[in-house]
UniProtKB/TrEMBL annotation:
SUPFAM superfamilies: Thioredoxin-like. Residues 23-172 form the Thioredoxin domain. This is Thiol peroxidase. NCBIfam families: PRK00522.1. GO terms for molecular function: peroxidase activity. Pfam families: Redoxin. The gene is tpx.
Length: 172
């Protein structure tokens, strides 16, 4: 059974339980498989050698998740060709594609953790009560070592965009 962490996160002030390990800077990034579409999957190894900014949102169709993804889409163009920006949620791939088209998102790749929540569990951000992934940011270097982690303590708050971008720029 996966580790459960209570007392570390809330949703509108109400406690929620996160499943999985508490990852830290210097940890090896756990392998993952996420869906780009219902049939196309990608894994951490597909981005080998690249700097990865992984923006995790509970659901793309909510205000903060929308703003977070739009912000990283704006920043992505300034980070260089060796950086990929991935947004992970448990939304179905079709919903992610619909949202991207409507929002004009073209520099961020949206990936879905809908099948088995394996990303959320491996990265310690799966919310037990909701089966959603907790808002968080991971910056992973070209050797798949975690260089920056922010798991928000309150799901409805924004991450520290500037710190995450600076962590990426320090690796470029």
């Amino acid at each position: 059974m996966a580790q459960e962490r209570t007392g570390v996160a809330t949703l509108k002030g109400n406690p929620i339980t996160l499943i999985g390990p508490e990852l830290k800077k210097g940890d090896q990034a756990p392998a993952f498989t996420l869906n780009k579409s219902l049939v196309e999957a990608v894994s951490l190894s597909d981005y080998a050698g690249k700097i990865k900014l992984i923006s995790v949102v509970p659901s793309i169709d909510t205000g903060v998740c929308d703003a977070q993804t739009r912000r990283f889409n704006e920043e992505a163009g300034n980070l260089g060709d060796n950086v990929v920006v991935l947004t992970v949620s448990v939304d179905l791939p079709m919903a992610q594609a619909r949202w991207c088209g409507a929002a004009g998102i073209d520099k961020v790749t949206l990936l879905s953790d809908y099948k088995d929540n394996s990303f959320g569990e491996a990265y310690g951000v799966l919310i037990k009560e909701l089966r959603l992934d907790m808002r968080s940011i991971f910056v992973i270097d070209g050797n798949d070592t975690i260089q920056y982690v922010e798991v928000l303590s309150e799901m409805t708050e924004h991450p520290n965009y500037e710190q995450a971008i600076e962590a990426v720029k320090a690796l470029v």
